[in-house]
Q: What sequence folds into this?
């Protein structure tokens, strides 16, 4: 999967290569994302410990990160998912079951997966150019066809199509990065 | 990609609301459809999760932990206790289905016993093609076994099994991958084959390894029934 990751791509490759200072930059860029997810999963008291473990594990296994298989943010969140599940198991706790998709008896936290998806997609949307974001929102939230979006916004149809293709590729890379951990 | 990406996208976006399962989507497009549906769900379904800034000292903690080579590895010396396993060791009544419901709780209990021998996602250098491993825990008193999953150059997976002194009594040993099914007492099972000694077993292409996190060795009677006997000897959870 070839994905335009923009300036993130450089950082992701520097990280995979173990470059000096790459982890600090990754932390600056994604620390809030990882910490907030951990906090949501295991609570404020344990979130910092969990997030610390995520970045340590990420650094130690950086050679397993493949920028072509998904985004770095997604991959970090995939590691975070394993870490919080470990912590919950260790404490005999289960994530809150979701009413939409009942939690499997294995303790696999489908609910937390949806939280991660949402956080990753939100984060990626926020980084997309405003026009691309607007077009995607019309498609997803407004249920509009490409032609309707072009008509509504005055953006040429060809541009709408390429915006959607580009935007979707970016969102997809986030979720594929998440899935790449442990698969 | 589908011939009409526009209507394909719209259909995937609407799938959750309309209960469209995408059953008639051609198999080569099913992943795309599922992914678009998932993205649509993430964009529209839930309340956004507010980002919280981490405590100011978190980076300093990470930095100093990295400087200590041992920190962050798997907890050492977890006791391998011989806690009772809530698994019916006797052969369950025969059922016509190949998906025999065993007690998943038994698996869960066994998983808690699995010693954390591999640091999560933290294998170094030489064995970078190893994606997961498990020490198998005894469910009954018998020998030992350990499994390693290796990713091959062509993207497929192989399970390497080390087994020692496991007795099959009046049957044979069979290697399985197990994963949770749809209900609490349902398991999905994939047989990787008969075990005579340590060796390598191909993992069927196309299965999602994360959906089958448990390696299981059962003893099977010579009765011609290909389903799991329900009589497991060793079990362990794969961890990356």
A:
């Amino acid at each position: 999967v070839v994905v335009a990751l923009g300036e993130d791509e450089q950082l992701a490759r520097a990280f995979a290569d173990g470059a000096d200072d790459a982890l600090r930059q990754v932390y600056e860029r994604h620390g809030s994302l990882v910490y907030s997810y951990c906090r949501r999963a295991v609570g404020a008291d344990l979130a910092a410990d969990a997030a610390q473990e995520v970045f340590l594990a990420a650094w130690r296994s950086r050679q397993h990160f493949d920028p072509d298989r998904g985004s770095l943010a997604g991959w970090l969140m995939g590691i975070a998912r394993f870490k919080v599940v470990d912590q919950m198991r260790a404490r005999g706790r289960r994530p809150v079951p979701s009413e939409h998709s009942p939690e499997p008896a294995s303790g696999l936290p489908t609910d937390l997966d949806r939280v991660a998806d949402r956080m990753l997609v939100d984060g990626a949307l926020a980084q997309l150019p405003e026009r691309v974001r607007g077009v995607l929102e019309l498609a997803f939230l407004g249920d509009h066809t490409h032609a309707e979006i072009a008509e509504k916004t005055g953006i040429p149809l060809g541009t709408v199509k390429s915006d959607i293709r580009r935007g979707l590729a970016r969102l997809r890379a986030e979720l594929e990065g998440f899935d790449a951990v442990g698969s | 990609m589908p011939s009409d990406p526009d209507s394909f996208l719209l259909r995937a976006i609407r799938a959750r609301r309309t209960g469209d399962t995408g059953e008639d989507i051609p198999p080569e497009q099913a992943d795309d459809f599922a992914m678009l549906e998932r993205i649509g769900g993430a964009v529209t379904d839930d309340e956004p999760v507010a980002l919280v800034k981490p405590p100011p000292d978190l980076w300093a903690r990470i930095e100093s932990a990295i400087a200590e080579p041992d920190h962050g590895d798997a907890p050492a010396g977890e006791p391998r206790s011989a806690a009772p396993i809530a698994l019916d060791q006797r052969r369950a009544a025969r059922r016509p289905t190949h998906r025999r419901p065993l007690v998943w709780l038994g698996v869960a209990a066994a998983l808690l016993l699995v010693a954390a021998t591999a640091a999560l996602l933290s294998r170094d250098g030489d064995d970078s093609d190893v994606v997961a491993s498990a020490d198998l825990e005894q469910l009954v008193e018998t020998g030992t076994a350990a499994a390693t999953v290796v990713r091959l150059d062509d993207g497929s997976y192989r399970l390497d099994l080390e087994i020692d002194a496991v007795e099959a009594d009046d049957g044979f040993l069979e290697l399985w991958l197990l994963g949770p099914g749809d209900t609490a007492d349902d398991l999905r099972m994939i047989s990787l084959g008969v075990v005579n000694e340590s060796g390598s077993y191909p993992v069927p292409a196309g299965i999602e390894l994360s959906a089958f996190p448990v390696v299981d060795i059962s003893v099977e009677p010579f009765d011609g029934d290909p389903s799991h006997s329900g009589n497991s000897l060793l079990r362990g959870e794969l961890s990356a």
Summary: Confidence is low (pLDDT under 50) at residues 71-127 of chain B. Chain B has four helices and eight strands.
